[in-house]
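Long-time lurker, first post.

We've been arguing in lab meeting about whether zinc ion would sit comfortably in this protein at all. Half the group thinks yes, half thinks no, and nobody has a model to point at. So I'm putting the question to the forum: if I give you the sequence and the SMILES, can you give me back a predicted structure of the complex? Inputs are below. Any interpretation is welcome too.
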Amino acid sequence: MSDELLRALDQAGVRLTGPRREIAALIAKRNGHFTAADLIADASKRRLGVGRATIFRLLDLLAEQGLVERVDLPDGRHAYVPCEPSHHHHLVCVSCGAIAEVDDCGIDAVTAEASRRSGFSIESHRLELFGRCPNCRSAN
Amino acid sequence: MSDELLRALDQAGVRLTGPRREIAALIAKRNGHFTAADLIADASKRRLGVGRATIFRLLDLLAEQGLVERVDLPDGRHAYVPCEPSHHHHLVCVSCGAIAEVDDCGIDAVTAEASRRSGFSIESHRLELFGRCPNCRSAN
DNA sequence: GATTGATCCGATACTTAGTCTCATTAGAGT
DNA sequence: ACTCTAATGAGACTAAGTATCGGATCAATC
Ligand SMILES: [Mn+2]
Ligand SMILES: [Mn+2]
Ligand SMILES: [Zn+2]
Ligand SMILES: [Zn+2]
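Top reply:
Settle the argument with this. Predicted structure of the protein with zinc ion, as tokens:
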């Protein structure tokens, strides 16, 4: 349900407008990752009158709040996934686009080692794992 | 020097054309990451007559050969870094754009654990580390 | 060194993602 | 209900990237 997104937006002190409710519903209805273009297509299919720019604006806002996270697909597309606001990483199914979240399982040791070897101080990292989800594994 | 790129291209069995030599030289002259737009600007500044499309085409080709790798910057831009063809990851200096390469230091354990928890089979991963290089650390 | 054919080229048109501006609307606190 | 500001949709605009195509050029062969 989109209630979660809306509640979090309310929390963030921004207005709960009509278009935002509608777009949030579209996002909630999706599974796996989606692009801005997907949402724009959804919206126009349902004849919601929301403007293109409004969708980009809401995605930015949600990303700032950590409610949605940007994923760079291997093919170069920019997608988003609905998200817990805490730090974690994403498993992306290359077959169906399903997403699983994993929290840090040992990454900190890796970054510490990389820092030691390179002399860099590490401020942030991005780890994306690509593979096949349980469904797609058994389906084939 | 760009000789390394050219040798590798030759190895790959493609033609060593004039434009490719010139673009390779531009890449070799860069340090840190660069975007297609950077190269296009470099080329036009030097009045090389190379076409925009040729630059995109060579970047694709180099990326296929693993001589250059695409990095998705935190701000969403697509950049490239000159690269060893073997698997490894990149440390990106958020201040000056310098790059260091680190090979797998314990990532496999992380992906194995993520796979166990999620049921995904993991086929590939992408790890990017962002921070400050030794130069930029001491410069401030 | 000339011939030749596939590869590669630049020009140009096109598509798509994303941003910006601005006049109008509508949310939320009073 | 009133008000003031945040947010909206329309549309122009920019920038990234792709597709097409006739002409140039590389490199293998003779
Ligand atoms: Mn997430
Ligand atoms: Mn590299
Ligand atoms: Zn799947
Ligand atoms: Zn630096």
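For your lab meeting: The CA atoms of residues 87 and 136 of chain B lie 27 Å apart. The two ends of chain B are 31 Å apart (CA to CA). Whichever side wins, do check it experimentally.
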